[in-house]
Amino acid sequence: DPVLSLEGITKTYAKGSANPVAVLRGVDLTIQPGEVVALVAPSGAGKSTLLHIAGLLDTPDQGQVTLAGQALTGQSDRRRTRARREDVGFIYQFHHLLPEFSALENVVLPQLANGVARAEAVTRASDLLSRVGVGARADHRPAALSGGEQQRVAFCRALANEPRLLLADEPTGNLDPATSDQVFDALMTLVRSTGMAALIATHNMELAGRMDRMLRLEAGQLG
Ligand code: ADP
Ligand code: ADP
Question: How high is the pLDDT of residue 195?
Answer without folding.
Answer: 85
